[in-house]
Design a protein that fits this description.
Layout (H helix, E strand, L loop, with lengths): L7 H37 L1
Length: 45
């Protein structure tokens, strides 16, 4: 990542946190779906 006349810093940090939050939500959704599938398999099987 290259700095943009120092303007990147505040915007960059916000963007990083936004991306991290998005990734975290994706991971949570993935884990939840896998977990539900496993639990469902255990109870149904």
């Amino acid at each position: 990542m290259t700095g943009n006349n120092g303007k990147m810093e505040t915007k960059g940090v916000d963007q990083v946190f936004e991306d991290m939050q998005k990734d975290l939500n994706d991971v949570k959704a993935l884990i939840r779906s896998l977990f539900n599938r496993k639990i469902g398999g255990v109870f149904n099987g």
